[in-house]
Amino acid sequence: MHDIRWIRDNPQAFDRGLTRRGLTPQAARLLAIDERRRSVIHKLETAQARRNAASKEIGQAKSKRDEATAQALMAEVTELKAAIAEMEVLERAISKELDDALAEIPNLPLDEVPDGTDAEGNVEHHHFGARRKYAFAPKQHFELGEALRQMDFEIAAKLSGARFVVLKRGLARLERALGQFMLDVHTGEHGYTEIDPPLLVQDHVMFGTAQLPKFAGDQFRTTTDHWLIPTAEVPLTNLVRESIREEADLPLRLTALTPCFRAEAGAAGKDTRGMIRQHQFSKVELVSITTPEASKDEHERMLSCAEEVLRRLGLHYRVMTLCTGDMGFPSQKTYDIEVWLPGQNMYREISSCSVCGDFQARRMGARYRATEGRSVRHVHTLNGSGVAVGRALIAVMENYQEADGSIVVPDVLAPYMGGIRKIEQSA
Predict the structure, then answer these.
(1) Residues 37, 262, 301, 348: which is the catalytic one?
(2) 418 by DSSP, 3-state: which?
(3) What is the CATH number of domain 4-103?
(4) Residue range 57-72: average pLDDT?
(5) Which member of 88, 264, 308, 349 is catalytic?
(6) Is 301 labeled as catalytic in the residue annotation?
(7) 352 is catalytic
(8) Do residues 73 and 51 lie in contact, with contact meaning Cβ atoms separated by under 8 Å?
(9) Domain 119-423 CATH superfamily
(10) Which of 75, 175, 290, 378 is in the most buried spot, having the most CB atoms within 10 Å?
């Protein structure tokens, strides 16, 4: 959510930021609504002040036995009360109109974010490792999984429809091992606190992290009007909603391994084979709550934490700085980590790390009290995948495949696999 006071003081900068995102300027429209709101508030405050003053004058007139004046003042107070009630209704309506308009506008990009209209405008930041070479034509993960008889899309479709999968035996354990490995790295070495959050949340929680109102169609809603979380970012970030933290307690670094649920309403026809784009998948999420001064450095730190997972798995990847036209709605700047998949012969996103400034904090009412001066300010929020477990499973399968279709277990996962060093077709 944007600060209307900042827009009032910086209308041209606000519109420039929207233009960089490929959107039309909005400052004039927003300020017109704000001017109507402020005008009503001024009239309301004037009427309230006059009502209070007239109420005192009634007592003074009665003490002087000036009944005519007292009656006139009481009539004035009655009229003011009716007018105040009408103005309060009008002020609430205009304030809601302004809030609704602001809620539909994405965050502004930082100056260093490259301009662009879509993924073609993204810029490589750096890469790690090199593509593996094979003496055979590498297969895609679903070809491998189905041949191993441990990845079943057909039975999943009978249970739940398209974009679901049933994993079995070694592949099921490998996915579990990946999630546990990531959690151990982030909690044991990177200083993140593990959280086990609710998977069902209410409207205001989804609004806080900006899934609502604009992206309601991408979410799953229950018959009890709860939402299934699309990412653990939602409950983790909202843990600080409607609170004031002490600066000394920041940064807060939180992580969770949860199922995630996405309707994928805008993904019709995309990645219909395999596990790339599922309605249900597991992900290790990283969330940081920090001060404005520290948020840029925290963004770089979060990226390095996510990268470390892939480095230890021995996976080749590249880091892309997303352009203005490809960033998420609440983001000021985003790094995508794209892992190399030899079966697909292409890079695919496996993590997205974003700094959101105070955009989400304003929607949640999340603030902190500065150590010096004791002023209260909005926190900055960051989120990232550390990383997507299902896509990590895909990457391990495709990169560690053997000519016979078996999958070698990466060394770092051996302690989690109960002695299994290679996943092969069961008899």
Answers:
(1) 262
(2) coil
(3) 1.10.287.40
(4) 92
(5) 349
(6) no
(7) yes
(8) no
(9) Bira Bifunctional Protein; Domain 2 (3.30.930.10)
(10) 290
